[in-house]
Amino acid sequence: MATQDLRAVPAPAADPVTRAEVEDFLINEAALLDEWKLEEWLTLVADDGRYLVPSLDSPDSDHRTALFLISDDRRNLGSRVKQLLSRTTWAEFPRSRTRRLVSNVRILERTGDQVKVTANFAVWRFQHDATDCYVGRYVHLLVRSPDGGLLFRERRAILDLESLRPHGKVSFIL
User: Residue 54 has what pLDDT?
Assistant: First the structure.
């Protein structure tokens, strides 16, 4: 009986990412952020992941060549989460209460091991007797994790606001 060369057998293709799977992922992510479970949320970001919030006047710019409101790699994002969970971030002490709505989830393209998706969002922020609403769209690059779930390779929150007033800042994760 001849032995089979296992290296010659192609690996099974990963299951294609579905819109429903992306929608569930984004809804669960929103719940983690609203509940301030930021350490759990951070596990949804790939090791090579980025969190991006482009400037309001140049939403489609490249983070490598333009100024962004936020342009964090995984290491900086870990530091941001640590600061937000401590009492040292004055803009989030006390913590804001937020409520997120995510809708209109669409898969835009599939390239190699990643899928590009978009969704609309509205995030209401309640703090110090004030209510602010951040509205925009997400454009994400998602990849499969080793356990088969989804991870952010790039998480881009594009705000539709004309200015950050009356907000003046983005001190929490959109």
Answer: 93
Q: How far apart are CA 25 and CA 37, in angstroms?
A: 15
pLDDT category, 166, cuts 50, 70, 90? Answer: low
- CA angle 156–70–78, rounded 5-degree value: 90
Integer CA distances (angstroms), 30 to 24, 62, 85, 93, 121, in order:
10, 25, 17, 21, 10
Domains identified in the chain, total number? 1
Q: Is residue 5 part of a domain?
A: no
CATH number of residue 65's parent domain? 3.10.450.50
User: Range of 154's domain?
Assistant: 16-159
Does residue 35 lie within any of the structural domains? yes
Helix (H, G, I), strand (E, B) or coil at 83: helix
- Chain center to CA of 153: 9
Looking from the CA of 62 toward its CB, the CA atoms found within 13 Å total: 2
Is 165 inside any structural domain?
no
The pTM assigned to this predicted structure is 0.86
Using one digit for the tens of pLDDT, what is the confidence trace for 100-136? 999 999 999 999 899 999 999 999 999 888 888 999 9
What confidence category does residue 14 fall into, taking pLDDT thresholds of 50, 70 and 90? low
Domain membership of residue 142 (yes or no) is yes
